[in-house]
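TA notes, week 10

Several of you asked for a full example with nothing omitted. So below is the full record: structure tokens for the whole chain, then the designed sequence directly under it. When grading your own attempts, check the secondary structure regions first.
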């Protein structure tokens, strides 16, 4: 069968090998091949422009940009949306067939291709997140060793940083020389991680200051260089969403809905989507709540005053995080900086 008959291709991505399934206009399978990484691009260069579907996983954005340069229309799909189209026992060719089926659906939700700059920014955030996690683990381990020997330290990294030199320098039967050396080594690990986090944070700050979209987002309350750059790395200009509520739902900041008939049941937040970005928006909302004197200056100040009297603090912070997410998306979509009246127009 000639490659000119192919209208849709599904590719199951792998590290070194790729499984390719092609459909014609009637939906019949006319291509079923296994290709190496080097062979894939060469073989698809000989295929007339068509629709190509892939799961949004490691390497998909890089390959997608290459295939778009060849004239193909590339659609990336979330893996959970492909699974319902899988027939029979799972194998790589059936995965590729399911991807091709899902890519043709008019109501399917797709993942926009990320640029190289977005992937670079995303990599910085992922490394920073890992370093912060490791730093927290080292701090907790130091606390644990001290607590096991009857030396509790009050909560907070700053308190431990201040108390640690005095604890290690005093003569005590609680700490053996071996444990003192061990904690000193852990403290050095802590200082190293602090320097690495500070270095990457500085780089992210500089990139955010250079990006017009990040500067626009940073004009909103609770949004700084970390949140703004993470949002740009994740969604670009937000074209994949029709309104701010869709973005908040993608972050998992809306209640999970289980409804039937005329009965609507709303539960806890869904916690779907980008966990890292959701956490950042919640931290930004907490920062806004700590500055109560600034509430009247915001467009949502009246809502925040009323909500703070009737909602639990944890519910309030999540509600505010969802509102900030909708606000941030609206600022990107409308190309507007934040002002006190902007919140009323946020989608």
């Amino acid at each position: 069968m000639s490659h000119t008959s192919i209208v849709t291709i599904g590719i199951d991505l792998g590290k070194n090998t790729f499984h390719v399934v092609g459909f014609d206009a009637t939906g019949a399978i006319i291509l079923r091949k296994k290709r190496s990484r080097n062979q894939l691009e060469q073989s698809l260069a000989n295929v007339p422009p068509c629709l190509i579907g892939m799961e949004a996983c490691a390497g998909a954005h890089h390959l997608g940009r290459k295939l778009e340069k060849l004239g193909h229309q590339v659609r990336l799909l979330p893996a959970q949306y492909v699974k319902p189209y899988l027939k029979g026992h799972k194998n790589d060719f059936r995965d590729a067939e399911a991807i091709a089926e899902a890519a043709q659906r008019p109501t399917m939700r797709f993942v926009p291709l990320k640029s190289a700059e977005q992937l670079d920014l995303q990599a910085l955030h992922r490394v920073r997140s890992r370093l912060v996690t490791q730093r927290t683990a080292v701090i907790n381990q130091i606390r644990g060793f001290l607590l096991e020997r009857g030396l509790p330290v009050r909560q907070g990294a700053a308190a431990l940083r201040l108390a640690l030199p005095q604890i290690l320098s005093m003569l005590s039967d609680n700490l053996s020389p071996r444990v003192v050396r061990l904690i000193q080594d852990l403290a050095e690990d802590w200082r190293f991680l602090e320097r690495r986090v500070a270095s990457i944070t500085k780089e992210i700050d500089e990139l955010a200051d250079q990006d017009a979209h990040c500067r626009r987002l940073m004009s909103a309350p609770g949004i700084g260089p970390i949140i703004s750059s993470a949002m740009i790395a994740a969604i670009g200009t937000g074209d994949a969403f029709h309104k701010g509520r869709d973005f908040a739902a993608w972050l998992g900041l809306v209640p999970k809905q289980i409804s039937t008939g005329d009965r609507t049941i709303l539960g806890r937040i869904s916690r779907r989507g980008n966990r890292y970005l959701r956490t950042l928006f919640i931290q930004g909302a907490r920062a806004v709540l700590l500055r109560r004197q600034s509430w009247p200056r915001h467009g949502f100040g009246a809502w925040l005053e009323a909500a703070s009297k009737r909602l639990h603090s944890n519910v309030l912070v999540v509600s505010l995080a969802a509102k900030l997410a909708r606000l941030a998306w609206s600022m990107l979509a409308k190309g507007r900086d934040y002002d006190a009246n902007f919140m009323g127009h946020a989608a």
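DSSP finds 13 helices and seven strands in the chain. Use that as a sanity check on your answer.
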